[in-house]
User: Fold these one by one.
Assistant:
Number 1:
Amino acid sequence: MIRTSLYIATFTLILFGIVLLFVKPDTLILDRPIQFSQKRIDMTLDYIHTHYDANATHITIDPRIIVLHWTEDDNLTRSFGYFDPQTVPSSWGNVTQASPLNVSAHFLIDREGRIWRLMSETTMARHVIRLNMDAIGIENVGGEGSNANLTPAQLTANIALVAHLKHKYPKIDYLIGHYEYTLFEGTPFWREKNATYRTPKSDPNPQFVEAVYEATRTLGLKRASDIAPQGL
Ligand SMILES: [Zn+2]
């Protein structure tokens, strides 16, 4: 009888361990919110009205694409500082002209592989022209001087975060690097009322995106090159 109880106790412990393994991805996300007052909410809705849909009534997104970036800065504090202010710096040329809403991303991964959540995952962030209504943005601290210097710890963290997001939002179909966003031209994801609004992007380095993709292959995500224009 005692032996049976021991077996049951051991079995329960193992089961608990397995459950813990599955919830682990949630625990590795740390919250470090950027400023998001009513002002940023209003500017986000204005951005959607101007660029995507004049009749939109909310700033919520239904994630379909994960976009990987780097900040072009190797320092975490400075990288966070790019996204924290609510309005875009006046010196940012056509970015400022297109909207006063500052750029942002949902996640920022530092050089040690810590994952910082900057804002709600289902609120529109301004990180990828034309695709913002469908895309979750993951920024990586690094790439200063266009150096392909993202760390092994960042690679591990990106893989874990992509897997976590795909499980949380099963409708996510694509994993792309920011440099690939124009491949969506001609598809329903390609939204923009201003036909000329686009900027060439080269972040992050393609080898990094490929490595994240290879490691998450079993999730069945597609690459930007898989999308057939008008063929969704
Ligand atoms: Zn980018």
Number 2:
Amino acid sequence: MKHPPAQIHLPTVLHTLMVLVLISIPISNAKSMIEPCSSSDSCSSLLGYILPYDSELAEISYRFRINASDLLAANSISPKTLGDQIFHAKAFLRVPISCPCVDGIRRSLSTTYTVQAADTPDSISAGFGGLVSAEQIRDTNGINTQNPLMSGEKLVIPLPCTCFDNVNNGIASVYMSYVVQRGDGLGSIGAEFGVSTMNLVAVNGLGQPEVDPGDILSIPISACSSANLNWYNESLIVPNGSYALTANNCIKCSCGQHDLNLRCGTSGIATTCSQLQCKGSDLFIGDSHVNQTATGCNITTCVYRGHLGGKIFRSLANSSQAPCPGNQSSNAASPFSFDPGVPSIAISPSPSQSISPSTGALAPMSGQNFNISSNGRLLVTALSFSLLPLQLGILFLL
Ligand SMILES: *[C@@H]1O[C@H](CO)[C@@H](O)[C@H](O)[C@H]1NC(C)=O
Ligand SMILES: *[C@@H]1O[C@H](CO)[C@@H](O)[C@H](O)[C@H]1NC(C)=O
Ligand SMILES: *[C@@H]1O[C@H](CO)[C@@H](O)[C@H](O)[C@H]1NC(C)=O
Ligand SMILES: *[C@@H]1O[C@H](CO)[C@@H](O)[C@H](O)[C@H]1NC(C)=O
Ligand SMILES: *[C@@H]1O[C@H](CO)[C@@H](O)[C@H](O)[C@H]1NC(C)=O
Ligand SMILES: *[C@@H]1O[C@H](CO)[C@@H](O)[C@H](O)[C@H]1NC(C)=O
Ligand SMILES: *[C@@H]1O[C@H](CO)[C@@H](O)[C@H](O)[C@H]1NC(C)=O
Ligand SMILES: *[C@@H]1O[C@H](CO)[C@@H](O)[C@H](O)[C@H]1NC(C)=O
């Protein structure tokens, strides 16, 4: 069994659209999933990268030829981290890559590597966490005994990726290529990434629910998208657990904590942003006024509507009799949620109103109106969260 054929992927939602081909994956005994394609489009995808050694942020982004800001965003790490932060060996990072269609299959060829003195194809493969095999490095670059690695030589590093129309079982998803580690099983991998074993088997076209170390799995990560938000000229798909910066970095969007609705607010990192305030109000994008009533809350939110030609679109959206933020008995449906990593804060003046770090939700209100700001202007400095009530999404459809 030197070169077993690739496992064939056949997602039920796509099976009528796809012609599948058998392609040999040149990794001894290792399986990888191949997505045939014919279009010239590309999609957002992720690599699951387990760091082989301690590396600085800049080193990792250089290794994959991606932007450090994008790497932070994919991992929901504050952009304030940009600098010489060290990520330790064995740490898990999501690496965002664009997934084009090259010669009939999905894969990324945009990463290059400059050979160092002591490198071997195996050491280079290890540096990329096994996402590319030594044999793939040799094949892609014509390395053999006549043509050995030369120090200073530039290699193309083919990296595995899949798109599957950014959908999994009808849910917007971004696919992550993950190298199975020693000790991993489908169950443990599924549990870690919130995917059922059955789904992993189906997505990866596994004949039986078994994987071996070195296999590369395609893991669907649920995402929230702007598809139904009626945005101007902009479509965005953000995997749960990531954020995205848009509109010249003026706007930051991420999934809600309890749902897959896209929430956008001011990013607070770009300095030259205008048109962030909703007309006829004192609210900035992502901010809300909340008025408590006898039966619920009236909420007015300044929502992001996309950008075009340097112009940022936004509008006020109202929802009346909505669940109040922090009504803990209706937490799951709460329109308010905070980005992970937001420090615990108290809303003055009442010390009883505090953000619970565990749930990220506002504690119950004591019957008064208040304002919520997406970047903490009215609360505390550096508080950064965004909100978009579930109910408000419906307003866009009207
Ligand atoms: C990385 O992306 C950020 C935000 O999009 C941008 O401001 C910056 O110029 C980019 N850096 C490089 C090196 O491309
Ligand atoms: C962007 O919007 C303009 C005006 O609404 C429209 O004419 C144009 O086709 C849109 N472009 C894209 C790529 O959607
Ligand atoms: C998003 O991810 C978080 C943490 O990774 C998880 O707790 C939550 O259930 C996920 N949300 C959805 C809607 O899948
Ligand atoms: C809080 O939730 C409970 C149960 O969901 C509901 O009966 C109550 O009206 C809610 N209160 C507010 C202020 O939204
Ligand atoms: C909340 O109350 C203020 C005045 O107290 C009013 O201006 C505002 O329109 C109200 N907002 C909602 C959503 O009812
Ligand atoms: C929302 O309510 C405000 C007043 O509270 C009003 O000025 C505005 O027109 C309303 N917007 C929508 C979209 O209903
Ligand atoms: C809440 O909204 C309802 C319906 O829009 C309105 O009748 C009511 O006066 C509002 N209450 C407050 C406190 O703004
Ligand atoms: C909310 O902000 C408005 C405008 O700045 C202000 O008039 C109002 O008093 C604020 N409400 C609360 C509860 O702070």
Number 3:
Amino acid sequence: MHEADESWDTHGRFGVLESIAVLPEMRHRGIGRKLMSALYAELRRLGVTVLDIGVVAMNESARRFYESQGFRPWLVHYLGAIPNQKS
Ligand SMILES: CC(C)(COP(=O)(O)OP(=O)(O)OC[C@H]1O[C@@H](n2cnc3c(N)ncnc32)[C@H](O)[C@@H]1OP(=O)(O)O)[C@@H](O)C(=O)NCCC(=O)NCCS
């Protein structure tokens, strides 16, 4: 859980979902959806209405899953090696 962030409107405190995973052989049976429902219930109980979810950009399957839950891409993070110092 994070306090409201001044750099954007997070509607007060917001939840942060770092990761969820379902065993490969158990996927596409609604377990992920149930996990998300349990998370929403807990966040509602805490009075939190906004959820921030981090997903590796290449993980298209997870992105489709979260988008099926109504979430949309928001921030994009870039990661890379720092360029060598120029002489
Ligand atoms: C993402 C993950 C948690 C989803 O769990 P799940 O139990 O398979 O999801 P559900 O069965 O509840 O799927 C709910 C709906 O999401 C969508 N969905 C889920 N996985 C999808 C996929 N690979 N492609 C397209 N849509 C998908 C579908 O609408 C699905 O409904 P349907 O199966 O009836 O078509 C699971 O695939 C997983 O553990 N992935 C590996 C770990 C990971 O990448 N975690 C997220 C990164 S933080």
Number 4:
Amino acid sequence: MAKPDPIPASQSAAEMPQLVLPEHANVMGNVLGGMVMHWIDLAAVLSGRRHCRRMVVTAAVSQLSFLNPIKVGGLAILKSKVVYTGRTSIDVKVEVFSEELNTGEVKKTSSAYVTLVAVGDQGELVEVPPVLPETEEEKSEFEAAKARKQNLKREKL
Ligand SMILES: CC(C)(COP(=O)(O)OP(=O)(O)OC[C@H]1O[C@@H](n2cnc3c(N)ncnc32)[C@H](O)[C@@H]1OP(=O)(O)O)[C@@H](O)C(=O)NCCC(=O)NCCS
């Protein structure tokens, strides 16, 4: 079967706003780290599915960082995009920002790389279309993700 055409990275770009409520927060009024991880997973799945139009499962999360807290009453904004694809896997970069709704101040609060694997109806692994990085930033993310994947393979040997 012919290889599917590459899909521009920009086609998987997604922005997911999340109003921050008390139920998302710890006793200090900051969003719980685990909640941010949940949102990161959802944002990654959104981009992954936009890319491959298949079901995906999460295989790994790497380079997760928490840079600033997100306060209750503000907005968390998750920006995600596919950065790399293997045979069945899709690497998605997710960045999280806080927006203070009274002032409009925006701060980067987290980032992570999520590896998803595409699966068919019976849970079998399926091939994904290759991603096409177009901008300089997308090309640089692609090369960095490729290097991470190669390192991972070397560690497994
Ligand atoms: C993820 C999963 C499908 C991988 O299955 P597997 O039999 O190990 O498959 P493979 O070893 O052939 O790996 C499949 C792909 O995933 C990648 N992969 C698997 N584990 C990985 C990891 N820890 N980190 C990065 N990539 C990984 C492989 O590199 C491969 O990529 P490629 O096809 O693009 O080269 C399987 O481990 C699984 O079902 N895990 C549970 C998923 C889950 O429940 N997630 C949470 C809820 S969605």
